[in-house]
Amino acid sequence: MKILELLSQLVAFETVNDPAKGIKPSKDCPEFIMDELSSWGIESELIERDGYYAVYGEIGAGEPRLLFMAHFDVVPVNPEEWDTDPFRLTVKGDRAYGRGSADDKGNVASIMLALKELLSDELNGKILFAFTGDEEIGGRMAMHIAEKLSEEGKLPEYMINADGIGMKPIIRRRKGFGVTVSVPEEKLRIRGRMEEKTFRISTPVVETRHAAYFLPGVDTHPMIAASHFLRNSGALAVFLEGRFLKGNVVPGEVTLRYVEPGEGGEVEADLGLTRLLKAIVPLVRAPIKPEKYSDYGVSITPNLYSLEDGKHVLRIDVRAMSKSGEEIERVMREVAEFNLPGAELTVRTNEKAGYLFTHPEEEMVKMMLEVLEDFGETVEAVEGPGAADSRFFTPYGVKAIDFGPKGGNIHGPNEYVEINSLRKMPLLYREVALRLLRG
User: Fold this and answer.
1) What are phi and psi of 136, to 5 degrees?
2) CA-to-CA distance for 288 and 316, rounded, in angstroms?
3) 326 contact partners, CB below 8 Å, separation of at least 6
4) What is the 3-state secondary structure (H, E, C) of the chain?
5) Phi (first) and psi of residue 105, to 5 degrees
6) Which pLDDT value is given to residue 57?
7) What are 137-188's pLDDT values in tens digits?
8) Structural fold of domain 3-174+355-438
9) pLDDT tens figures, 102-127
């Protein structure tokens, strides 16, 4: 089977993860993966936890040496923002468009085909593989697999987490944290003129909606822009709506209905919403000190807003090279107490997860770079902006890198993978595996 054919079949499964709407991937896609592998002589098992699925298997014999991992779940879409059907792989030139083509079904297809070839190779040790269905909402399935392998004494020496972009080995990645701030509605009758203003995302250099890729000073975040407007206009917020998708996806636009105090009729404004929105600017500039250095520093993006049971709720995505959320909670709470007295604030994190921080001189990294050079790619090891499931294995001492084909528009409309890059991936993964197992 050719890789574009396999990727086309994978993209057709709408494996969207959207907990806010109660949407999770069915077991159709993982069952397809299992059936396809089985037809090639590779047996695997279906793991289920809390309604989420993963496919796990092993090939070879002896000690576990290498784990391949990728995820088949994807983030939600706004179909009207796409030029093509997001769940139908569409080829245009050297690009194949579709939700998950780059993140991360291109990698799923690549590993599957690499395993098919490795099955007939003489392996010095076991190769483990796992395809998970909840990476986009925290990766608890990967955490479960890491714990299971640890308990069974089967943790591998190496891990290639096929969840990267650009055909560059990613050796560092920050951890993600979720901060929720909520304040009650506080209605106020005021005389003035009702207005409406729409703020839209702008990413002039890297077209993406992934929160970890957002770069202040270059990109424009609609929620931050709305906050800046309120802080400088004297207006009071009345209502806010937007294209909110997910905690780590920057909304494409938000529309603010507001009142300019002064002449006009009597209207109802909301002081609670006004204060919450005005607090966004200081919240995203909170001076959080991470545990380790990162090229990307600390990213703070406000990507979800909702009105729930009389409370305005803002969910903020925080990325930092930190394992614990204590410093994040301390600083965010300090900012909130100054700007939003009485607000409720919680920090959500998984204490079992770490961050990816592999030394560039590690043998695994050097070997990957050698293989890439053999495939005509001259690159260097880099830091990736987003978090990934490798963070559940690094605390156990597993040597890990994240990797993936060239592509773009991750988490955004018109996501694509570069076909020439994708075609190299199964061969590249096979060659890296063989060299690692030879030591």
Assistant:
1) -70, -10
2) 14
3) none
4) CCHHHHHHHHHCCCCECEHHHCECCCCHHHHHHHHHHHHCCCCEEEEEECCEEEEEEEECCCCEEEEEEEECCECCCCHHHCCCCCCCCEEECCEEECCCCCCCHHHHHHHHHHHHHHCCCCCCCEEEEEEECCHHHCCHHHHHHHHHHHHCCCCCCEEEECCCCCCCCEEEECEEEEEEEEEECCEEEEEEEEEEEEEECECCCCCCCEHHHCCECCEECHHHHHHHHHHHHCCEEEEEEECCCECCECCCEEEEEEEEECCCEEEEEEHHHHHHHHCHHHHHCCCCCCCCCCCCCCEEEEEEEEEECCEEEEEEEEEECCCCCHHHHHHHHHHHHHHCCCCEEEEECCCCCCCEECCCCCHHHHHHHHHHHHCCCCCCCEEECCCCHHHHCHHHCCEEEECCCCEECCCCCCCEEEHHHHHHHHHHHHHHHHHHHHC
5) -75, -25
6) 98
7) 989 999 999 999 999 999 999 999 999 999 999 999 999 999 999 999 999 9
8) Aminopeptidase (3.40.630)
9) 999 999 999 999 999 999 999 999 99
Please give the model's pTM, rounded to 2 decimal places. Answer: 0.87
Q: Which sign does the torsion angle of CA 15, 18, 23, 24 carry?
A: positive
Whether residue 104 has a cis bond before it, omega within 30° of 0: yes
Q: Tokens 């993140």 — which residue?
A: 103
- Cα–Cα dist 43/64, whole Å: 16
What are the domain boundaries of the chain? 3-174+355-438, 176-348
